[in-house]
Design goal:
Blueprint: E1 5-9, H1 15-22, E2 26-32, H2 35-44, E3 50-52, H3 60-67, E4 79-83, H4 104-115, E5 119-125, H5 127-130, H6 135-146, E6 150-157, E7 165-166, E8 168-175, H7 206-210, H8 232-237, H9 255-261, E9 285-286, E10 293-294, E11 303-304, H10 314-320, H11 337-341, H12 347-352, H13 358-362
Parallel strand pairs: 1-2, 1-4, 2-3, 4-5, 7-10, 9-11
Antiparallel strand pairs: 5-8, 6-8
């Protein structure tokens, strides 16, 4: 049998698309609004047409035309997937119920109704369920229900599927034929057992994820592995890849900054620093060696390397997000707030914005 066909909307840097392809799907095309992630997509998915621009400007038939795909294929799409922009209702965002990005569910469903695929996947932050008394979540489910499709929504916890960070995401799965696929059962556990008393591998830790990468200091870069993989997770990240390490460049820090970083122990945060020495920025975590990272954000400065007094590299953040090492991020490494307002989407934002982890798909 040929592979099932998939279309992805709100693609970002392509983490969900990579996972879906690893699960056996054929990606017909993808849509993304920001030019920097589009560069990343084209680097990592050279054979897949990438349609750049606001989804509001494209009909389904126009998208197929721009992708150079026969419109007859519209009748043979098995899955539409997408991680809608979450800035309006993320617990780390502005929680603005008037944010126009909150209404993009309507654009997603417009494309969905035009194409009529067999299945769909929608992903978003868990804050969607409770923000503004759950009205946004109810509105989305109401709009999906009006299409006549059956669906299930569930919050999944990334460590349960082999990702080394405390990330929770709302996953909505729908079907036209009434047979909605079930959400996957956990394949990892915090104590080697799940609810059904089955022995499972323990959660992947930060050390499991990154301790084979070059231990570079601030201002340095590293392109050669210094050791063989030390964990199954590292083997997965390095699978079929023998090239140079990309995106592993450490930012430069002043001596006083590194001295300040040194006051935070592995797994600790700013509250571990004597109160009289604390600076204004509070939300900094030094990654634990044998534990989980907090949810990766778009700002590397929210984290510190477990043992080196510097913020993580893009490659280290990508490892925590379960991007394999052969996945290269393009664009500026980081940007300040002004650059973000001007529309830049730096490598750090591309990694932090990823809406679904790769490791869970590649192991399912």
């Amino acid at each position: 049998m040929s592979k099932p066909n998939c279309i992805e909307l709100f693609t970002g840097a392509g983490g969900m698309m990579l996972g879906i392809e690893q699960a056996g799907f054929n990606s017909l095309f993808a849509n993304e609004i920001h030019s920097d992630p589009v560069k990343t997509l084209k680097r990592n998915f050279p054979a897949i047409p990438i349609i750049e621009g606001e989804i509001q400007n494209f009909s389904a038939s126009k998208s197929f035309e721009l992708a150079g795909i026969n419109k007859k294929i519209m009748n043979h799409v098995d899955l539409i997937a997408g991680g809608l922009p979450c800035q309006g209702f993320s617990t780390a965002g502005l929680k603005d119920k008037t944010d126009p990005r909150n209404n993009l569910i309507g654009e997603y469903l417009r494309i969905f109704k035009e194409i009529q695929p067999r299945y769909f996947i929608l992903e978003n932050v868990t804050g969607l369920k409770t923000l503004h008394n759950g009205k946004l979540h109810e509105n989305i489910l109401f709009k999906i229900d009006k299409t006549g499709d059956q669906f299930k929504d569930k919050v999944l916890y990334a460590p349960d599927y082999g990702v080394p960070q405390m990330r929770k995401r709302l996953i909505i799965i729908g079907s036209k034929n009434g047979k909605v696929p079930t959400h996957p059962e956990p394949s990892f556990s915090s104590d080697n057992k799940n609810l059904f008393n089955q022995n499972l591998p323990k959660y992947v830790t930060v050390s499991d994820a990154i301790n084979d990468l070059p231990q570079i200091q601030q201002g340095e870069s590293g392109v050669h592995y210094k050791s063989k993989p030390k964990s199954g997770y590292q083997q997965l990240m390095r699978k079929n890849y023998n090239g140079l390490i990309t995106n592993h460049i450490a930012g430069k820090h002043r001596l006083k900054t590194m001295e300040y970083f040194s006051l935070i122990p592995p797994g600790g945060n700013v509250m571990d620093i004597p109160e009289e020495l604390r600076k204004k920025k509070q939300g900094v975590q030094r990654w634990p060696l044998n534990g989980l990272s907090r949810t990766i954000t778009t700002k590397p400065s929210d984290f510190l390397h477990p043992t080196i007094d510097r913020i993580p590299t893009i490659r280290e953040m990508a490892r925590i997000q379960s991007f394999p090492d052969n996945f290269e991020f393009l664009g500026q490494r980081t940007t300040g707030n002004k650059m973000r307002r001007l529309g830049y989407c730096a490598q750090s934002q591309q990694v932090g914005n990823i809406e679904n982890q790769v490791a869970s798909s590649s192991q399912s």
